[in-house]
Amino acid sequence: MTIGERIDGGLAADDSGLWLIVAERFGIEVPTFQGEGPSCGHPALFIRLSRCNLTCTKCDTKYTWDWAQFDPRRESTKWTVADLLAWTTSSPVELVVITGGEPLLQQQRLVPLVRGLLAAGKRVEFETNGTITPLPELLVTGARYNVSPKIASFGVDEAKSLVPAALEALVASGQAMFKFVASTEADLDRIAQVADAHRLAPVWVMPEGTTADAVIATTRALADAVAARNWHFTTRLHVLAFADTRGR
């Protein structure tokens, strides 16, 4: 299998297990920042993996899973762990964000990648929907989890998007924060119910929006209510700075 070879919609493994299905990688050729959560504003490299186990109607990366709208042969590429390591370690940027889609669908293949990144002095953040329990080999010093459980207002069945065992494991790891997308104060009420039920902490709220105007408006609508709950609040810096341009 050659580097960068286009693939079909499947997720079949090969004998080596040393490649990953990637939607895009960015942050070197055109520098960027982590746009959300505790590391918002930090220079970052991104490896966006393809495929997801949810089908949220408000998802802003449907090109990683929605094959009714996108062609997986155009949107997916196989990259070896070795080449991903070579790409990331060619940059002095410390933070590597592994996102999706849902990256933990490929977590067995992520083990050697994360080991290599940490050995090279990188810091790793996973962006995950919180439905899959990470392997012990990925719950290591230097790796953090930005967990974004999806509530019904995001256009998903909570019976699928809220997995108690996975959330409990992430809480127990001590390496996770829990970031919810919200549009209304009613969303905040539901977030509080979910956080209380699963003992999720710390809680971060991120305003929904794919334009600067929408992010600003939702931020202003929710700010007082988020502050009153003593939760953390994050913007979407990449939307404000780059107008939600793909690859930024």
Layout of helices and strands, plus pairs?
Elements: E1 19-26, E2 32-33, E3 43-49, H1 72-75, E4 77-80, H2 81-89, E5 95-99, H3 107-119, E6 123-128, E7 143-147, H4 158-161, H5 164-173, E8 176-182, H6 185-198, E9 203-207, H7 212-228, E10 232-233, H8 237-242
Parallel strand pairs: 3-5, 5-6, 6-7, 7-8, 8-9, 9-10
Antiparallel strand pairs: 1-3, 1-4, 2-3
Helix pairs in contact: 2-3
Explain this structure to me?
With 248 residues, the chain is of the alpha/beta class. It has a single domain, classed as TIM Barrel, CATH 3.20.20.70. Helix content is 31%, strand content 21%. It has eight helices and ten strands. Strands 1, 2, 3, 4, 5, 6, 7, 8, 9 and 10 form a ten-stranded mixed beta sheet that branches. Helix 3 links the parallel strand 5 and strand 6. Helix 2 packs parallel to helix 3. The relative contact order is 0.14. The N terminus is likely disordered.
